[in-house]
């Protein structure tokens, strides 16, 4: 691998790491918006998240193309390079990127869970407003629905 390709690979990995850090911060902000009462903030953070994911995908495509063009496999595999110093540098960056992306995946799953819980809460509230029988639990832990009259009629 020539010097220019090495530099480009290191730059791509550094860029991916920086975008992954931004994604992690955005996911944290998205969680705060989901827990709070700011639908506009949720929308903004979701749009930002989608844009950052697109950037990561683009950078990943560039990195894969560079690796394919130079005959280098997945970064982090010392057998793919001739110089151990370069291999270690790339491996360290690759490991840092994978750790960040794993944290982002976990944060995104937590945010998805919060969204799911909120959707269920809203569904239950809408059922109550419409007069549907809410599901409650009896003294023995069994579920049952009590007929309630609608809070509003159209």
Order of strands across the biggest sheet? 1-2
Architecture, according to CATH? Up-down Bundle
**Beta content:** under 5%
Average pLDDT:
84
Helix content: over 70%
Could you name the ranges where pLDDT drops below 50 across 5 or more consecutive residues?
78-82
Count of distinct strands: 2
**Total tally of structural domains:** 1
CATH class membership? Mainly Alpha
Treating each run of at least 4 consecutive H or I residues as one helix, how many helices?
A: 3
Brief write-up:
The protein is built from three helices and two strands; from the N terminus they run H-H-H-E-E. It is mainly alpha-helical.
Account of the protein in words:
- It is a single chain.
- The protein is mainly α and 154 residues long.
- It has a single domain (3-111), classed as Methane Monooxygenase Hydroxylase, Chain G, domain 1 (Up-down Bundle).
- It contains three helices and two strands, in the order αααββ.
- It has helices at residues 3-35, 39-70, 84-130; strands spanning 135-137, 143-145.
- A two-stranded antiparallel ribbon has the order 1-2.
- Helix 1 (3-35) runs antiparallel to helix 2 (39-70) and helix 1 (3-35) packs parallel to helix 3.
- The longest helix has 47 residues, at 84-130.
- The relative contact order is 0.12.
